Amino acid sequence: MMNNILVTGSRGQLGSDLVVALQRRYGTTHVMESGRSPRSEESKLFPYKVLDVTDGRRLEKIVKRHQIDTIYHLAGLLSAKGEREPDRCWDININGLKNVLEVAKSERLKVFYPSSIAVFGAHTPKLDTPQMTVTDPSTMYGITKVTGELLCQYYAQRFGVDVRSLRLPGIIGIISYNAPPGGGTTDFAVEIFYAALQQRTYTCFLRPETRLPMMYAADAVRAILELMEADLSAIKVRTSYNVAAVSFSVAELVAEIQKHLPEFACEYKPDFRQAIADSWVCTVDDSKARADWGWHHTYDLSAIVSDMLAKLESLKREQGARKRAEGAEEAEGAEGESTTNSTPHTPYPISDRTTHYAPLIPDSRLPTPKIW
């Protein structure tokens, strides 16, 4: 059976890597990206639809017209932005999910929903947080994630919707060298790499001793794919599975980066995000995911830092070479303007995107893409 996949919020940090993995598995024509922003130059090379997930009719129209059978629902407002705009956070995170679940119910779709460690709160055990535990978040983002988990369980039990979910930790990955992510409490663990390479210094919005569960994007993508491809009988949890990889403090991350960049320095100026981080857990027990569908992580802190720095250095060189080439083309075009019409340059060639993201997903862990 052909898989026709819709990814909402596909241009976010996790979505960018997940889309590439899905395209490699199922073919680019079977993976449709969507987002609230208009089609970019890059998106013209791939199936893409403008979609506000709070618009249920628009979502249903896309699903029916393109015979979608699986939705990876990544659209949402993150923790820090959610505190600034709580009403909007609720609208996007809850009403958007409700729309996805409704169309999944009527069209018999399979759904992935990302929950978060933000579901945990002040009364949750901080160490080895169990699968079944107190979920009493203090942020609007966390509240929407707990509500989302319960909605998923309800639709699974009441209507038979095959919706699967992971309580993801902080994700470390690459979007682009010039556009690091924004809006999450764990963003420091991505921003710090860009700052280390560009300025050799970083001002962190969390205290040095702050310890949080984290995961490399390659592991997160693999966890999602393995969960979605697991046999239906293996899925025992219909709220959201705990998944874990590494847990480290900000100071430990700084020390690991300094092994590669000894001159790198970090100062600490905690802001409102410190209170959010303090409400979260330090380590998570994911034994249920490991037992039910065989989850295991690959990247430890050392491997994450080495790979991130290498990828960003490579990307920086590629972008520098491209700018120099574009400058040469513009100069050549200007010289011949009176007699020649130059061909417009596409700023995001397809080779750039596959080169950029594919290395985050090691070839040995992905099967040969299916040919339809």
What does this 3D model show about the protein?
Helices cover 43% and strands 14% of the residues. The chain is of the alpha/beta class. It has a domain at 5-174 and 216-246 and 284-299: Rossmann fold, CATH 3.40.50.720. Helix 4 (86-107) packs parallel to helix 5 (140-159). The strands form three sheets. The protein has a seven-stranded parallel beta sheet with strand order 3-2-1-4-5-6-10, sandwiched between helices. It has helices spanning 13-26, 56-65, 79-84, 86-107, 140-159, 188-198, 217-229, 250-258, 273-278, 287-293, 301-335, 350-357; strands at 5-8, 31-35, 48-50, 70-73, 110-116, 162-168, 170-172, 201-204, 211-216, 241-242, 246-249, 265-268. It is an enzyme of class 1 (oxidoreductase). This is L-threonine 3-dehydrogenase. Belongs to the NAD(P)-dependent epimerase/dehydratase family.
CATH superfamily of the domain at 5-174 and 216-246 and 284-299: NAD(P)-binding Rossmann-like Domain
The amount of beta strand, in percent, is: 5-15%
The termini sit apart by 10 Å
CATH architecture of the domain at 5-174 and 216-246 and 284-299: 3-Layer(aba) Sandwich
How is the CATH topology of the domain at 5-174 and 216-246 and 284-299 named? Rossmann fold
Low-confidence stretches: 337-372
Which outline best applies? globular
At the first level of CATH, what is the class of the domain at 5-174 and 216-246 and 284-299? Alpha Beta
Q: Main β-sheet, in a few words?
A: 7 strands, parallel
Strand segment count: 12
